[in-house]
Amino acid sequence: MGLTINYSGIAVKIKCALLSVLIIFTINFNASGIADGNNSEKNILLLFSLVPTTPAYKIILEGFREKLTKEFGDSYTLNIEYLETERYPRGNYPKEEFDLYNRKYKDVSIDLMICVGIDIVSTVKKNADDHLLNLPAIVVDYDLSAYGKPFDFKVNGKTTSINLKMDINRTIDEAIRIFPGTSSIYFLSGTSGTDRLILEISREAAKNINNKIKTSFITDQTMDDLLRIVHKLPENSLIVVSSFNSDVNKVPYYNTEAVRLISKSANAPVFTYTDMGFGDGSFGGYIISFRKIGPLIGETGVKILKGTDPNSIKISESDYYDHLLDWRELQRWNLTGLENKKSGYTVQYREITYLGKYKWYLSAGILFLVSQSILIISLIQLNRKQKRMTRQMVETDRRQMDIIREDRILRIGMMTASLSHELNQPLTSILSTAQAGIRFINSDKADSQLLKDIFENIVEDDKRAASTLASIRGLMKLEKREKIRADLNKMIIEVADLYKSKAIEQNCKINLKLTDVPVFVIADSIQIQQVILNFISNASHSIEESFNKINTITITEVVEDDFVSVSVRDYGKGIDESISDRLFEPFITSRKEGSGVGLAISRLIIEEHHGKITAMNMPDGGAEFSFKLKNIP
Amino acid sequence: MSEMPEYRIFIVDDDVSVRRGISLLLNSAGYFAETFENVSDLLQVEDNNIPGCILLDIFLGGESGLELQDAIINKFRNNPIIYITGQGDISMSVQALKKGAINFLEKPVDEKHLLKAVDEAIKISQYLVNMKIEKDKFNALIGSLTPRELEILKYVLKGMLNKQIAAELNIAEHTVKLHRGRITEKLGVKSVPEMIYIVEKSNI
Asked: Which residues of A touch B86 (CB under 8 A)?
């Protein structure tokens, strides 16, 4: 109840209601149990004439028990004895057997005796003592009186007779109706007593068959021979396995087993009188149904045990006969139209179609296929997506390359224009001066001083052109060189050392503010050092030309995120405003002796390293030139 | 150029060696050239009806020479511009020629082209200067006429007879004759066609 504390009031109420129902149920149950106890347990004696393994008995017992259990639950006792009259047919055996039973059940209170088997009553009456013979009884036996075999169906005056009238003619008639073209019927029989008996009545019944149909009786054969015979029967034949418990060599068979073997090798449909063999190759038709007889005995037994007068219980043919068809046989003999309910037959063993039979396999297979398909499709899509992305990346990469190339072409174009201008000036001068010289000489106006001036001018212009070319070579030589992982600190220190003597000469100091640990970049060290050197050189010139006497050049290295930036700061005259926006273009300079290519080269180098180069005037005087590169851990 | 006329050539280039070279070349061919580093220096010079031409670098320290062309043309109407450039650009050349430059030379310029261009330019300039001188002369002649004489000159040029002019001005035919005699005397002409020529060349 501890748990219910947590529940709401309604839950508690429901629980209480359930509890009370349970209590009432238990009381009733106990009451009925007490009532049964008063009646004591039902005690039933069941006598079978044949061996325990007889297939029909199993089926009979099954149906019988079901009915009894349904009525009495566990409170009944079933004593079963198998007389095995077939196996030990002669001599004193039944007598000795019943002596045992008589003793065995002498002091046992038996409520009902049930006798099952062909002509069993005669044996019982002959051997059982009065104790048994006075019991209320049910007799289950073939009624072959129509074939001149009148059996006794009454043990005493308290007997219910379930006399199974064997209606062979109707069975055969229906078989012929199913196979209208039948021209001959083969009756197959075993050699046991029962087999011979049933064969005998079969012969009797065959007399009533339309004489246009040939009837043959095959018995006293080994099973092997029999199977060979049925394999080669003429067309339009029917086989009737009347009964088969042993072959001529006394090899025992069960009916079901014999029917299965015969049906398997037969080239004609196999019929039986009972459902022993139905499901094992018997076509079916109008047959005695042991599947019905079991429950019938059970029901009858219950009635008697409950006090119904055994004599008053009447059994009709429909209680134990059935209209059955084996679906597989219909398929085998290509019969259609019998499957519907109008035919009056119940079709059994309907083979579950492949679809039905392998429903689970199929659905599992389909599910697997579908999931595989989905997987494959998604993989394909993934693949496509990846390809598309790769293509886009390649495209982007290519476009970037294009931009870089176009930019380079543009810059080369600009540079060429600048270069041609730079070279055209001295060339123009040289050409004009030289041509003037020739003219002066031709007109005899050339004195040696004039000619000397002319040649000096030419030499000067030529040197100027050469120096322009030399400076431009630096730009042109900037081809792709191998870049490796290198320590930026080391590069800076090396450049600073390199510049030391020149710095002393120019009366300036270089102040380094570097990180404590090495900072790595992917670079061509020589080129990066060229940039730093250019920055320092510019700074020193700037200091030289300014009136401000702060002569310190500070190189600062800062690592932030994935980048490292190096800046060179001076307190010189700063960047000339008139050229500040074109500072990195070639041949732009504010110095008379400057070539104007240093910063252009520096920019090319840094951009080649995927870095960024900047220059700016500082508010407190001077300028700062810096570049930024990707920092590699 | 049978008689040595007085002329002048201006060279405008920011590059001193280019100025010096071209000027030397022109010198050797008998021309005298004045050199200027930029356009504003050139504009300081007086224009005085001397034939000549201007050799102008299209890029002067990065500025386009074209922008200063108008100022030069306004000042030196009779001195044609020859452009000299290292970066011969078609559209720029067309622009320059449309605006009044007469020629285009590419650096390094050969003496043959240079001297030919200069020669042609000077001839054009000579013609322009002559035209200007004549026009100035005729203007002065016309200017010497009295308003009455000018009035009568107009009627004469219309082809009216003395009698008609007299009726028009409501004066005596004889008076018209007197005025006509004074006009021909002042203009130094003998016939009406000569009179028409002077009036056409002058600003009237």
From this structure: 420-421, 424-425, 428
3-state SS of B69-125? HHHHHHHCCCCCEEEEECCCCHHHHHHHHHHCEEEEEECCCCHHHHHHHHHHHHHHH
Contact between A430 and B21 using a beta-carbon 8 Å cutoff: yes
Of B24, B59, B87, the CB nearest to A432: B24
Q: Are A531 and A606 in contact (CB under 8 A)?
A: yes
Asked if residue A36 has pLDDT above 50, the reply is no
Residue with tokens 């026009």: B135
Verify whether the Cβ–Cβ distance B27 to A436 is below 8 Å: yes
**Where residue A379 falls among pLDDT bands split at 50, 70, 90?**
very high
Structure token digits, residue A223: 């099973």
Q: Which two tokens stand for residue A492?
A: 């800076």
Q: What distance separates the 2 farthest-apart alpha carbons in chain A?
A: 180
Cβ pair B20:A424 closer than 8 A: no
Specify the 3-state DSSP secondary structure of A79.
strand
For the segment A382-441, what is each residue's pLDDT rounded down to a tens digit?
Answer: 988 888 888 888 877 776 666 556 555 665 666 676 677 778 888 889 999 999 999 999
Phi, psi dihedrals of residue A565, rounded to the nearest 5°:
-120, 145
Q: Rounded CA gap, B51 and B126, in Å?
A: 5
Phi, psi of B49 (to 5 degrees): 45, 30
Q: Residues with Cβ < 8 Å from A480, sequence gap 6 or more?
A: A608
- Cis status of the peptide bond prior to B108, with omega within 30 of 0: yes
Tokens of A274: 């009972």
Does B24 contact A at CB distance below 8 Å? yes
* Closest of A111, A119, A124 to residue A81, by C-alpha: A124
- For residue A190, what are its two tokens? 């075993």
Domains and CATH numbers, chain B: 8-129 (3.40.50.2300), 144-201 (1.10.10.10)
pLDDT digits (tens), chain B, 204 positions: 334 457 889 999 888 889 999 999 998 888 889 999 888 888 888 877 888 999 988 766 344 556 677 788 888 888 898 988 765 556 666 777 777 788 888 888 888 999 999 999 999 999 988 888 888 888 888 888 898 898 898 898 888 888 999 998 899 999 999 999 999 888 888 888 888 888 888 766
DSSP code at position A395: H
Q: How far apart are CA A100 and CA A371, in angstroms?
A: 70
Distance CA(B94)–CA(B81), nearest Å, equals 14
User: Strands (DSSP E) along A310-419, which ranges?
Assistant: 321-326, 346-348
What gap in Å lies between CA A239 and CA A246, rounded to an integer?
18
Residue A167 vs residues A311, A316, A497, A564: alpha-carbon distances, Å:
24, 13, 128, 110
Dump the DSSP string for A132-163: HHTS-EEEEEEEBGGGTB-----SSTTEEEEE
Chain A residue closest to B15 (CA)? A425
Report the pLDDT value the prediction gives residue A20, as an integer from 0 to 100: 53
pTM of the predicted model as reported, rounded to 2 decimal places: 0.43
Interface check B114 vs A, CB under 8 A: yes
Distance of CA B98 to the CA centre of its chain: 18
Please tell me what DSSP assigns to residue A234: P
Other residues' Cβ atoms within 10 Å of the Cβ of residue B161: 12
Cα B151 to Cα B96, B136, B180, B202, distances in angstroms: 44, 21, 11, 16
Residues 6+ positions from A244 with CB-CB distance below 8 Å: A188, A189, A190, A195, A253, A255, A258, A259, A262
Q: How confident is the model at residue A234 (pLDDT cuts 50, 70, 90)?
A: very high
Among residues A162, A378, A194, A206, which one has the least CA distance to residue A276? A194
The whole-angstrom separation of Cα A322 and Cα A274 is 9
